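User: Here's a protein and a ligand (zinc ion). What would the complex look like?
Assistant: Let me lay out the input and then the predicted complex.
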Amino acid sequence: MSKYKKGRIPKNIEYIIDSNNCFICTSHTKNKQGYIKINRQGHYLMHRLILEEKLGRSIKEDYCACHLCDNPSCINPNHLEEHTKEWNNKDRTNKKRGIYLGNGGPPKRNFKAISPEGIIYYSNNQHEFAREHNLNRNNILSCLNGRLKSCNKGWRFNYE
Ligand SMILES: [Zn+2]
């Protein structure tokens, strides 16, 4: 567990921005999984540090610093969110059904769904998503078209 302290982000970070708007860190080394390490500060992982700085607190116990972009070397704060391990697995399953753009690039995600509990899902198939979560497909379409704020079960949908 790392303890959050403000301003722990190293000053000497260099990165390149790729076509997916990922900030690929080039100034620090990666571990075997592709995550950026910061050895100087006791084996922290850069993306966790970045997310904690964004949140202004430590990442909760049993929660992950999840990459929405699936790129472990990415340190773009907008691509990082705190989620449960279950969410992370679910997210991965959802993405496997996505349309991959090739070159190991990120999957194409057509829409974002937010459950009444605030859990975020990505999908590109409204029909399949509606069936899986027992939702009304026309409601989803109306939300995506802006005719409805949320579906009859309180889910919200938008394009991303
Ligand atoms: Zn990214």
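Summary: The chain has a mean pLDDT of 82.
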